[in-house]
Amino acid sequence: MEHGIGKSMTRALVVLSLGLAVSCARKSPPSYLLFTGSLSGYLEACSCPGTPYGGLNAATHLAREFCSDHPDALLVDAGGFTTDTLDTLNAFFMARAMQLAGYDAIALGPRDADARYTGLFSSLPALTPEAPFLRIRDVLLVRVGPEGKPDLSGAPGARFTVFLSSGGRDTDEALAREFNPDAIIESEGDFGQFTIGQTLVVAAVPRGMSLGVLKLSDAGAEAWFIPVTDSTPTDPEVDFILRQYGDAFRQNLALTGAKIKFRGSGYCKFCHAEEFAAWKETEHATAHATLVADGKQDNPWCLTCHTTGYGRGGFSDQEKTPQLAGVTCESCHPGGHCPDQPPPRGNLDECAACHTPDQSPGFNGYDYWEKIKH
Ligand code: HEC
Ligand code: HEC
Ligand code: HEC
Ligand code: HEC
């Protein structure tokens, strides 16, 4: 790593020749690097208890705001921008949104590097297992994946070196000792930061809930976070992509012409009036209304948990399938044909399909069942 010696020497000479009593050379200005990691396909926040604020649209707003004061700041992602389960449509639109957001480098994490995504990210400045480094201005960015130590042969020198890692804490600690980069940004990890020798190790806040800022200067690296709050505006360009994503999803549904395979709770009510009455009082019955109140009823991803069978021959929209709006009986009792072949009885292990840690961090099968039992 160079340290901008050339530049500060020149300045020192200028200062001396002016005869001023300045004893030390003025330092080169710091470099700023904005970072995200583990965006997990969140083009927008879900507003569920686990991710009330965040998403790429809000994080992008914060990045643009920061860049109006620091136009040279770089924007990078440390990995994990695709969803936990393979979703090529979402990945495609995430990639487009990140391109519009102006990302300078995106380190592909293990999920993002899945062979089934090959070709989707060609428009992105992606750091891959095959091309793990990139120098932008005075910063060398290096991807670290699950395979550990990156191959740095042929890497150019730079004033600062930053690793973007989804390799895990043990790997990162070993790399800090071996390579001594200025900073290692982890795509996920315990919050907080620490140093090993000269190296600052800091984990990104997932799902765009905060934007990370890394300040690189000759005095060392510092990091802090700008949180997204309920008053953070969203970026119009990312919101545009979000709408395209919804439209594409719906057109795809129309094409595949999925036949309706769900009947809706009104049908079950004929014979299970008590269960129906109990269910009607729960938040499951109004889960779609929650999205409407938020203006998010067009986001296909929200619909997969806040309605019944969305994208799988169930809910399509409020006009065509009002009986499947919300988490209705068949979300938990799919299939079957009562009374001769009743559907599965229901099981608390299946709640986790929607009550994930990201959406429902306080989920506890027993206590939650008490609130909705029938
Ligand atoms: C025509 C009346 C009728 C309708 C309509 C009906 N059920 Fe049933 N259902 C029954 C009867 C009767 C039983 C009890 C069968 C038994 O005990 O073997 C039953 C049993 C069940 C069970 C319990 C299964 C078990 O293993 O204990 C579930 C769950 C269930 N129904 C869900 C539904 C759902 C969901 C719907 C709507 C999609 C529905 N039923 C519609 C009559 C009906
Ligand atoms: C198809 C997705 C889905 C499944 C499966 C599911 N839930 Fe839910 N659940 C939701 C959604 C969405 C909400 C939020 C509803 C809203 O918009 O208010 C919710 C809310 C709840 C709430 C209200 C939370 C509160 O703060 O009071 C309880 C309780 C609950 N679920 C229990 C369960 C239990 C128990 C199971 C399993 C037997 C289960 N859920 C399965 C989607 C699901
Ligand atoms: C993986 C399933 C899942 C997805 C996807 C999801 N939600 Fe939720 N959401 C839930 C569950 C489960 C709850 C209830 C959590 C609890 O109370 O513990 C919930 C709760 C909420 C609540 C709070 C409801 C209340 O009564 O206070 C809002 C608002 C909400 N979700 C909006 C959204 C929006 C908007 C999206 C899409 C951007 C979305 N959700 C995507 C599962 C999901
Ligand atoms: C969030 C998931 C969920 C939803 C929504 C849901 N159930 Fe259930 N249901 C369960 C679970 C879990 C059980 C098993 C409870 C047990 O074993 O004690 C169950 C049990 C039942 C039983 C068997 C009850 C008994 O005592 O034998 C029937 C019948 C039933 N549900 C019908 C319905 C109907 C009708 C609806 C819609 C009006 C509905 N359920 C909505 C999760 C759900």
Kindly describe this structure.
Mean pLDDT is 89; it is low at 1-25. The chain has 374 residues and is an alpha/beta fold. It folds into two domains: 30-227, 4-Layer Sandwich (Purple Acid Phosphatase, chain A, domain 2), CATH 3.60.21; 258-372, no CATH class. The strands form two sheets. A six-stranded mixed β-sheet has the order 4-3-2-1-11-12. Strands 5-6-7-8-10-9 form a six-stranded mixed β-sheet, covered by helices on one side. Helix 3 (88-101) runs antiparallel to helix 5. The protein is built from eleven helices and twelve strands. Helix content is 30%, strand content 16%. It has helices at residues 5-17, 56-69, 88-101, 169-179, 236-256, 265-269, 273-280, 287-294, 300-306, 329-332, 365-372, and strands spanning 31-36, 74-77, 105-107, 126-127, 133-136, 139-144, 160-165, 183-186, 193-196, 199-203, 210-217, 220-227. Helix 2 links the parallel strand 1 and strand 2 (74-77). Residues 44, 46-49, 283, 290-291, 294, 296, 299, 301-302, 304-306, 354-356, 359-360, 362-363 line the site of one heme C. Residues 265, 268, 272, 275-276, 279, 284, 327, 329, 331-333, 345-348, 372, 374 line the site of one heme C (HEC).
